[in-house]
Design brief:
Helix content is 98%, strand content 0%. The protein is an all-alpha fold.
């Protein structure tokens, strides 16, 4: 009986071990399933990470391109600012030159006004002289007419005088 009892205990112990083995097998199966699920999740996560990494590379390349464009634009802005500065300097020079030309034009306008005044005075003087010249020409013409008439009268008088008196008059002259 004792043997039966030992066999019973061995059977109970074996059953317990079998139960433990079964439990461990079940746990192992669950762990295997969990491991497989974890591996699938890891694969999916890895794929997602690869896609993100590729996306990040593209974004990084895009950012680097934008930074290059920004640097180019900053360079162009600096060049434009320098050009604007040069143009401002040229504009100031042109304005100074224009102011000088305006000043010279004003001086020339004043000189022209003075010269026009002198020309007007000279024209008035010429008109006065022309008027006096006409008067003198008229007086000269009148004098010439008077001389002509006087000669004509002298000739008429000489012709009307006797020849002896003519000689006498010539001697008196």
């Amino acid at each position: 009986m004792k043997t039966l009892h030992v066999i019973d205990e061995i059977l109970i112990e074996t059953t317990n071990y079998l139960q433990e083995i079964w439990d461990l097998t079940t746990q192992n199966s669950e762990l295997t399933n969990n491991l497989a699920q974890c591996q699938e999740n890891l694969k999916s996560t890895l794929e997602t990470l690869k896609k993100r990494e590729e996306s990040l590379r593209e974004k990084q390349a895009y950012i680097e391109n934008l930074e290059k464009i920004k640097a180019d634009l900053e360079s162009q802005l600096l060049q434009s600012q320098n050009l604007c500065s040069d143009l401002r300097s040229q504009l100031l020079e042109k304005e100074a030159s224009l102011n000088q030309i305006r000043k010279e034009n004003k001086n020339l306008s004043n000189e022209i006004a003075v010269l026009q005044n002198k020309i007007e005075q000279a024209e008035n003087r010429i008109q006065e002289l022309n008027s006096k010249n006409l008067e003198l020409e008229s007086l000269l013409h009148e004098t010439q007419e008077n001389l002509k008439n006087a000669r004509f009268e002298i000739e008429n008088l000489q012709q009307s005088l006797p020849p002896e008196q003519l000689n006498n008059d010539e001697t008196n002259e």
